[in-house]
Amino acid sequence: MKLLIDIIGWSGSVMVIAAYGFNSYQKIKSDLLIFLFLNLVGGIFLIIYSVYYTAYANTFINVVWVLIAIPALIKLIGKK
Q: What pTM did the predictor assign?
């Protein structure tokens, strides 16, 4: 179980960093589905990881991260 949680945590980290990095270097825009998807799924994965390891400060920031991504994703999907 620990290995699975570690894989989930590392995957979430890579997703969030990839979204931020691609956006920072203007490879993707913050209003694209891929950007929001990476942030949403990455944040969820990091929540799972941080809850497992009882790192509640980390859990808090990732819950906020996901709560920001969800309405943005809904808004984007609603436009299409």
A: 0.90
List, for residues 8-66, the tens digit of each pLDDT value.
999 999 999 999 999 999 999 999 999 999 999 999 999 999 999 999 999 999 999 99
**What is the DSSP-derived secondary structure letter of residue 1?**
-
Supply 65's token pair.
């991260």
- Domains held by the chain: number: 1
Q: Which domain holds residue 11?
A: 2-79
CB 65 within 8 A of CB 16: yes
Question: Looking up tokens 């179980």, which residue turns up?
Answer: 1
| Cα–Cα distance list, 31 to 26, 41, 53, 59 (Å) | 12, 16, 32, 25
CA torsion sign for 6, 9, 11, 17 is negative
Residue-wise DSSP of 22-42: HHHTTSS-TTSHHHHHHHHHH
